[in-house]
Amino acid sequence: MTNRLIRSGLSFVAASLLALPLAGLSSADAASFRDISDSSAKTQIEALYQKGLIKGVTSSEFQPNQQLTAAQGISLIVQSFNLNLDAVRFIKAPKASDYFAKVKDSDWSAQAFVIAQIFDFDVPSDIDPGAALTKEQFTYYLVKGMERSSGLPLINIKPVELKDDAKITAVYQGAIQRSFHYGIQSPGADNSFHPQDPVTRAEAAVMVYNALEYLKSHPAP
């Protein structure tokens, strides 16, 4: 994707990543987050904090059960896979408002949405940055970001049969199946995926952690 844009011969415009990781409002020692001690995602949250990819909502709280917004989710994915526009050339610097009706150019997450657009995350133009992401949406964008950042090869996998497969939006099905292959997540105990449930900050942290671990053990050629 990036190479095609570079070859277009358009003039260079530098772009910087403005989005804060996981919409963090404050930083803290991860070990001091008083609300993650009983979370099954404690290890992953602390690991991502140490990498500088996530922050707390307050100085002492991560709020693991809080729903993840579109702005938080897109920013987390862009930050985690180090996606940027440094090598991309444009005639005119792109703005979030060029692509998204509800994302203001002054929003803290605006540049992350621009990057998601350029890297073809397939984010709807009418997305509300403050709305909660569903599990299927976050999975789709995460797998897109993972694959765009690493050049993972095309794979042919045997789909996992899900009890609630009929509830999954058709365009998201392939990415969800690949997320199982990559070890990003697994179906529930009853073989259900619950695609329409809002994804939480803790669930997102676990999924990003697992995606990064997969890339670490499967480096690009």
Helix tally equals: 7
Question: How many beta-strand segments?
Answer: 0
Termini separation: 17 Å
Low-confidence stretches: 1-27
The helix-strand sequence is HHHHHHH
Mean pLDDT: 86
* Structural class category: mainly alpha
| Number of spatially distinct domains | 1
Helix % is: 25-40%
Walk me through what this model shows:
It is a single chain. The chain is mainly α and 221 residues long. The protein has one domain. The chain is built from seven helices and no strands. It has helices spanning 2-7, 42-50, 70-80, 110-118, 135-150, 173-181, 201-217. Helix 5 (135-150) crosses helix 6 (173-181). Mean pLDDT is 86; it is low at 1-27.
Structure, briefly:
With 221 residues, this protein is mainly alpha-helical. Helix content is 35%, strand content 0%.
Detail the topology: elements first, then pairings.
Elements: H1 2-7, H2 42-50, H3 70-80, H4 110-118, H5 135-150, H6 173-181, H7 201-217
Helix pairs in contact: 2-7, 3-4, 3-5, 5-6, 5-7
What characteristics describe this protein?
mainly alpha, 7 helices, 221 residues, disordered N terminus, globular
